[in-house]
Q: What sequence folds into this?
């Protein structure tokens, strides 16, 4: 509200009321000013009303919403359904241009602003989570983790040139990880982790031998992972980063849901400080409590070129949803809310582990010792002798527990033409049957209590079934 407008309005209603209204209208401008200059999350959470005002302000900057706009092109941000229009606050132009998915869209100043601000907020959120030395640019992409890994690997392959054919991958049994490589037109070389105690750890020496055997010029990248199902531990990303630097090979870290763990973020931060890390990919839904659809690509300060290439390699414009959802969410959390969520998760991990340990002891099972995994945990299912262990998972699911994963040794699966023995365990001969659960961001104490109670009942019932089938056979 400028002074001319206030003068005009003051002739209709009292000037002092107009001046109060002006203060409030300027408060929204103030938020924009602060965000643009600080490039950081607001300290305090913003209320929905303020965020909505901001979104309408941004929307009014897009040409499809200009009063009297005449669109005669083939892409004018038109919508048939007003529901669809409202779902994106009228920001229908999406993001990017044909040359760069992060480029400003001339027809959509507001959408471009929202997207750019989201990149700043996301970068700040990563720093607050422990990735302190993140590079200048954080790319918010409208593709989930797997497809984003494909885009990153495709860009690395282009850098490597015609000789680049292979990706060396520290095995993590999640089909997407394999497909992310094969979809980029690359061949995957699987390096199985080594079993130490209960835990599966990176075979760094085997990765190095594989690079030497293939010839480093033919290896596009080593792909390591931080967040994964127990009993697999976070990869030795620091050692791998040093090795990749020494051998001149790319290094991509799959940090799918690692942002929510301070320990994992600090390891990422260390890795890009001591060695080579070309890109780190993280899921928006798994870390920030938004719907599925986006991922963040970032890197340390030493090596920032790949991120720019990923942005320019992306063919065409893109949906703004992932970025808009994250923008809204980070404003709504504020720095305080985000840091609190992260802290609560750390506490919840300890609580879940304690409660599950109690159950395990009562039912004659045990928790697998996996100190290298700060999110996921696993309990043995040694009682699954005469019944299919997967029935245990179905029983939990029918009691409304979702998210556990039962793993039986000895299953073989072929994914992307590669055969995996012991699929599910990230190891071809893991010695235990077990199930996993995750203390992920947003899980509550109540979830843990109810899970523990259902688990007790399920174990009892499962053991009865096992005994009955043993008697029958
Ligand atoms: C979730 C996950 C993926 C796949 O992610 P999408 O977001 O579904 O593409 C890949 N790797 C790991 C480690 C994951 O946790």
A:
């Amino acid at each position: 509200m400028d002074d001319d407008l206030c003068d005009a309005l003051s002739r209709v209603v009292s000037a002092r009321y107009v001046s109060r209204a002006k203060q409030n209208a300027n408060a929204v401008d103030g938020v924009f000013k602060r965000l643009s200059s600080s490039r950081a999350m607001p300290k305090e959470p913003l209320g929905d009303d303020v965020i909505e005002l901001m979104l309408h302000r941004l929307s009014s900057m897009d040409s499809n919403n200009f009063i009297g706009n005449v669109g005669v092109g083939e892409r004018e941000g038109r919508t048939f359904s007003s529901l669809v229009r409202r779902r994106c606050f009228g920001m229908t132009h999406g993001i990017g241009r044909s040359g760069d998915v992060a480029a400003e869209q001339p027809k959509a100043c507001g959408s471009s602003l929202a997207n750019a601000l989201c990149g700043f907020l996301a970068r700040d959120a990563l720093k607050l989570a422990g990735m302190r030395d993140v590079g200048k640019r954080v790319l918010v992409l409208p593709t989930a983790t797997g497809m984003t890994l494909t885009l990153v690997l495709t860009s690395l392959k282009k850098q490597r040139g015609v000789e680049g054919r292979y990706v060396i991958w520290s095995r993590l049994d999640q089909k997407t990880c394999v497909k992310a490589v094969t979809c980029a037109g690359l061949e995957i070389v699987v390096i199985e982790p080594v079993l130490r105690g209960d835990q599966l750890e990176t075979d760094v020496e085997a990765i190095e031998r594989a690079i030497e055997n293939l010839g480093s010029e033919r290896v596009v990248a080593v792909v390591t992972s931080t967040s994964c199902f127990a009993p697999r531990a976070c990869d030795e990303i620091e050692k791998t980063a040093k090795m990749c630097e020494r051998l001149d090979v790319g290094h991509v870290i799959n940090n799918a849901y690692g942002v929510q763990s301070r320990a994992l973020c600090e390891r990422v931060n260390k890795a890009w400080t001591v060695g080579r890390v070309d890109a780190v990919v993280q899921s928006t839904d798994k870390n920030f409590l938004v719907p599925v659809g986006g991922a963040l690509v970032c890197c340390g300060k030493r090596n920032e070129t790949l991120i720019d290439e990923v942005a320019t390699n992306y063919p065409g414009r893109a949906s703004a949803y992932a970025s808009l959802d994250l923008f809204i969410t980070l404003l709504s959390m504020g720095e305080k809310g985000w840091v609190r969520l992260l802290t609560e998760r750390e506490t919840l991990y300890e609580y879940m582990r304690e409660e599950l340990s109690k159950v395990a002891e009562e039912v004659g099972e045990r928790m697998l010792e996996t100190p290298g995994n700060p999110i996921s945990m696993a309990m043995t299912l040694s009682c699954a002798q005469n019944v299919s262990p997967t029935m245990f998972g179905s029983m939990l699911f029918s009691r409304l527990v979702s998210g556990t994963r039962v793993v039986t040794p000895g299953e073989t699966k072929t994914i992307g033409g590669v055969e995996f023995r012991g699929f599910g365990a990230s190891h071809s001969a893991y010695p235990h049957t077990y199930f996993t659960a995750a203390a992920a961001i947003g899980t509550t104490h109540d979830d843990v209590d109810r899970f523990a109670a259902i688990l007790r009942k399920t174990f009892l019932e499962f053991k009865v079934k096992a005994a009955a089938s043993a008697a029958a056979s």
User: Anything to note?
Assistant: The first strand starts at residue 139 and ends at 141. The two ends are 82 Å apart (CA to CA).
